[in-house]
Design goal:
Strand 1 and strand 2 form a beta hairpin. The radius of gyration is 17 Å and the shape is elongated. The protein has a domain of 57 residues. The chain is an alpha+beta fold. Helix 2 packs antiparallel against helix 3.
Amino acid sequence: MQQQQQQGTQTQPTKTLSLVKGNQQFCFRYQVGEEAKVLESLIEMVNRRELPFDWFDAAVLSHQLGQHLAKELKAYLPKKAA
């Protein structure tokens, strides 16, 4: 049982999303599996009026997030026979 628990706690790779807007730079680092938390953070940032971060910026970063997810999923697809 302990071996299963130890194997389940392996660290996931860290991914990065970034956006440069004028003189502002937004950078999000997250682990695979935490994508929902990233989306929640983007929404929170849009709602913070003191930040120059809008829905378009959130869309750009969520698109990057989708590309990362697609890459992760592609690794699980069977290889085509040559």
